DNA sequence: AATTAGGATTACC
DNA sequence: GGTAATCCTAATT
C-alpha cells in the first residue's frame, strides 16, 4: 500500500542534548569561579584540591544557590531524615507526545545529579584523606571537628569561624539545628550547616556509591551524544542498574539469571528515544530491536515466556 | 489492546 | 557491513 513518504524528520541533523565531557577540561561550573582560589596556607600543604561545586562566587558573597544545588543533588539517594526517599522520578503515567522535551530534560537532570553526587563524594573523600578524618561527622572528635572547620574556612574563605564552634564533637555538631548554627554565626551559620549537611549525606551514601554502572566500560551516561553509539542492550542494562530511578518502568525479575521485565513499555521506549534522539521511538520499534538480539544471542525470551519479560543470555 | 514474531527496507555510523 | 529505525503482516495473549 501507499508507503510513499517515509517520515524523514530531518534526521541527519540530530540535535545533541549533550553536556560535553564530564569534568576535566571545562565541564560544568555552577559557581563561576573567580580567577583562582589558591589556598594561602597551610593546614593542608596540598597544592590544589578543586571543589568545583562548593566554590564561592567571588567577592565574598556566598553562593547559597550553589550550596543548595549541591545539597539537593547529594540528597536524593539518601536524604538525611527521610527513611523512604522518594526519587525524583518520571511519572509512569501517560505519554503525551509533546512531552518528550520535558522528559529529555528530566533524563538529563538525572544524569547531572549522578555526576554531581559523584563529584561531591569524590571531593569529600579527598578532604577526608587530606585531613585524616572519617567521612561521617558523627565519628569526629573535637580535633576532627576543628580540622573540618579550618578546612571549611579555607574553602569558603571565611573569617575565623572555627572559634565559634569550639569544643564540639562531631556528634554535638550533628545534633545542632540550623538555628543553632545561626546562633553561633549569624552570617555563616546557615552555610556551615548546609556544608555539614552535604558531608552527612555523603557519608550516608558512601556505601552505595559508586553504583556498578558508574565507571563501567559501557558507561557513556554523561552524554547523550552518540560518541560511541550505545547499544540497546547496554541501555537497558543501564536502566536496570539504576533501580532507584527506573524501577517503575524496568526492573529485574531475577538479576542472577538476567531476567528483567519492562513494566512501562512506553516509558522505556521514550527514554530510549531520548537517548538516541529518535522522538518517534515507540515500544513497537524498540521491541523489534530487542528481537534482533535473539539471533545474536544477546537477549532472549525466558524459558517460560511472559509478556514484556526478557532475559540477557549472558547475565553479569 | 497490546504484545510477539520476524521479513523487508531504509538510514546511519 | 553491522546496528537500528521504520514499516508491515500475522499470530498470540
TrEMBL record:
Residues 119-203 form the PNT domain. The keyword Oxidoreductase does not apply. Residues 77-96 are annotated as: Disordered. Residues 230-313 form the ETS domain. It is found in: Nucleus. Pfam families: Ets, SAM_PNT. GO terms for molecular function: DNA-binding transcription factor activity, RNA polymerase II-specific; sequence-specific DNA binding. Gene3D superfamilies: Transcription Factor, Ets-1, Winged helix-like DNA-binding domain superfamily/Winged helix DNA-binding domain. Keywords: DNA-binding, Nucleus. GO terms for biological process: cell differentiation. GO terms for cellular component: nucleus. SUPFAM superfamilies: SAM/Pointed domain, Winged helix' DNA-binding domain. Belongs to the ETS family. PANTHER family: ETS, SAM POINTED DOMAIN-CONTAINING ETS TRANSCRIPTION FACTOR. This is SAM pointed domain containing ETS transcription factor.
Amino acid at each position: 500500500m501507499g508507503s510513499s513518504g517515509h517520515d524523514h524528520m530531518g534526521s541527519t541533523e540530530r540535535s545533541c542534548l549533550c553536556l560535553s565531557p564530564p569534568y576535566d577540561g571545562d565541564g560544568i561550573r555552577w559557581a563561576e569561579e573567580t580567577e583562582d582560589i589558591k589556598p594561602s596556607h597551610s593546614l593542608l600543604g596540598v597544592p590544589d584540591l578543586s571543589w568545583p561545586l562548593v566554590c564561592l562566587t567571588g567577592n565574598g558573597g556566598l553562593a547559597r544557590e550553589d550550596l543548595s544545588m549541591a545539597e539537593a543533588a547529594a540528597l536524593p539517594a539518601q536524604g538525611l531524615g527521610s527513611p523512604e526517599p522518594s526519587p525524583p522520578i518520571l511519572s509512569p503515567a501517560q505519554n503525551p507526545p509533546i512531552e518528550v522535551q520535558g522528559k529529555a530534560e528530566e533524563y538529563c537532570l538525572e544524569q547531572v545529579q549522578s555526576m554531581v553526587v559523584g563529584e561531591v563524594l569524590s571531593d569529600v573523600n579527598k578532604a577526608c584523606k587530606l585531613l585524616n578524618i572519617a567521612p561521617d561527622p558523627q565519628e569526629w572528635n573535637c580535633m576532627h571537628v576543628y580540622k573540618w572547620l579550618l578546612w571549611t574556612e579555607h574553602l569558603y574563605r571565611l573569617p575565623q569561624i572555627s572559634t565559634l564552634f569550639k569544643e564540639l564533637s562531631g556528634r554535638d555538631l550533628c545534633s545542632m539545628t540550623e538555628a543553632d548554627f545561626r546562633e553561633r554565626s549569624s552570617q555563616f551559620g546557615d552555610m556551615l550547616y548546609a556544608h555539614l549537611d552535604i558531608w552527612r549525606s555523603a557519608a550516608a551514601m558512601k556505601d552505595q556509591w559508586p553504583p556498578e554502572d558508574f565507571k563501567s566500560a559501557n558507561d557513556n551516561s554523561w552524554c547523550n551524544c552518540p560518541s560511541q553509539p550505545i547499544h540497546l542492550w547496554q541501555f537497558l542494562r543501564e536502566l536496570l542498574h539504576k533501580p532507584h530511578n527506573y524501577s517503575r518502568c524496568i526492573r529485574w525479575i531475577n538479576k542472577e539469571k538476567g531476567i528483567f521485565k519492562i513494566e512501562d513499555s512506553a516509558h522505556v521506549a521514550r527514554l530510549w528515544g531520548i537517548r538516541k534522539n529518535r522522538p518517534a521511538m515507540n515500544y513497537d520499534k524498540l521491541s523489534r530491536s530487542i528481537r534482533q538480539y535473539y539471533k545474536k544471542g544477546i537477549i532472549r525470551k525466558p524459558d517460560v515466556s511472559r509478556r514484556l519479560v526478557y532475559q540477557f543470555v549472558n547475565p553479569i
